[in-house]
Automatic annotation (TrEMBL):
Record's subcellular location: Membrane
Membrane topology of the entry: Multi-pass membrane protein
MF GO annotations: glycosyltransferase activity; transferase activity, transferring alkyl or aryl (other than methyl) groups
Organismal lineage: Bacteria, Bacteria division WOR-3
GO BP, one annotated term: glycolipid biosynthetic process
Protein name as catalogued: Decaprenyl-phosphate phosphoribosyltransferase
Any Pfam family the entry gives: UbiA
């Protein structure tokens, strides 16, 4: 009696790859990379448990390491498709892949940052509950996870688009410099935060290969600086001195208020120039931009908000509604023009 042939069950990623239509072959590298990572994870899970883990940990702890609540920042990649009016399925799929990759690389950066700041975070009222600061995930485990994540994102980015790959490299290098040096330099710290947003916007444009508008980039710059200074203001006024970063103490409330006035006004002006010079038919969108800025200023100055801008988009119904109406306005006018 002969031995039966073992039944090979394809991984979920392999099944996805096999189901991709010929017209979307450009996405096969992404599916192939997911398939490779799946097989590596399945084959090495037991050995990793022995080598790196003292005991079984909830997979949710590793999800928390990636700070999914801050993934809303990566939605900025879709701004490239939105403002270039590239609503084709191919463009949207490429931006979606870019969004996933940026969630991965930004998650790896957050892990490195949490490792470096674990002692300071233990004194912070909310950061003390993060997986590394609380001790639920060890430093070695977190570091290995970050390295694997970085490698996976870099390889996949290289296979998909070389320009996008170099943007990811720049984002990674700048944020590592920020973690260990730049975040301790007054004023430069908020510029690095803003630069991260600009890289997201440029990445969204690069991955779909559309022209880059200087007004769009300037709008992103000033909006990012506005959000960053509002965050610093919140840290300065509402977090005890011994629990906040030393660089925050180098600011004053009055100085940050001046910054906020400059950056919020500049955001509106730059967006107005963008609309007037390049897309005057979308002038109605100015209403939503002005309201959004004013609403955010209200939350910062009247309610003490602004400490976590990524949460405001989700938690504040007025901001969320304003963003949805802004997007609908652009899509509706785009479709109306095409009729």
């Amino acid at each position: 009696m002969g031995l039966e042939e073992p039944i090979l069950v394809p991984s979920p990623a392999a099944r996805i790859s096999a189901s991709i239509p010929t017209s979307l072959n450009c996405y096969r590298p992404m599916a192939s990379m997911i398939n490779i990572l799946f097989r590596i994870q399945m084959s090495s899970q037991a050995s990793l448990d022995i080598l790196f883990f003292r005991g079984k940990l909830s997979s949710m702890e590793y999800v928390r390491l990636l700070r999914p609540k801050q993934w809303t920042k990566n939605l900025l990649l879709f701004a490239g498709a939105l403002f270039s009016f590239s609503f084709h399925l191919d463009s949207l799929l490429r931006v979606l892949i870019g969004f996933i990759l940026f969630c991965g690389i930004s998650g790896a950066v957050y892990i490195i940052n949490d490792i470096a700041d674990r002692e300071v975070d233990r004194l912070h009222p909310t950061k003390k509950d993060r997986p590394i600061a609380s001790g639920r995930v060890g430093v070695t485990q977190a570091f290995i996870f970050a390295i694997l994540l970085i490698l996976a994102v870099l390889v996949t980015s290289f296979l998909i688009d070389r320009g996008f790959f170099w943007i990811v490299i720049i984002y990674l290098v700048i944020n590592i410099l920020y973690t260990f040096w730049l975040k301790h330099v007054v004023i430069l710290d908020i510029f690095v935060i803003a630069f991260g947003f600009i890289l997201r916007a440029v990445a969204g444009v690069e991955i779909i290969d559309v022209p880059l508008s200087k007004w769009f980039i300037l709008t992103t710059l000033f909006l990012s600086l506005f959000l960053a200074t509002s965050k610093r203001r919140h840290e300065l006024l509402y977090i005890e001195e011994e629990r906040r970063r030393k660089v925050v103490n180098l600011y004053t409330p009055k100085l940050l208020d001046v910054f906020n006035t400059i950056f919020s006004t500049s955001t509106i002006v730059m967006f107005a120039l963008y609309i007037i010079t390049e897309h005057p038919e979308y002038w109605v969108s100015m209403i939503f931009v002005i309201y959004g800025i004013l609403r955010y200023l209200y939350l910062v100055y009247a309610t003490g908000g602004g400490g976590e801008p990524e949460k405001i988009l989700i938690n504040d119904p007025y901001i969320l509604t304003d963003v949805i109406l802004f997007i609908l306005n652009i899509v509706i006018i785009y479709l109306w023009k095409g009729v």
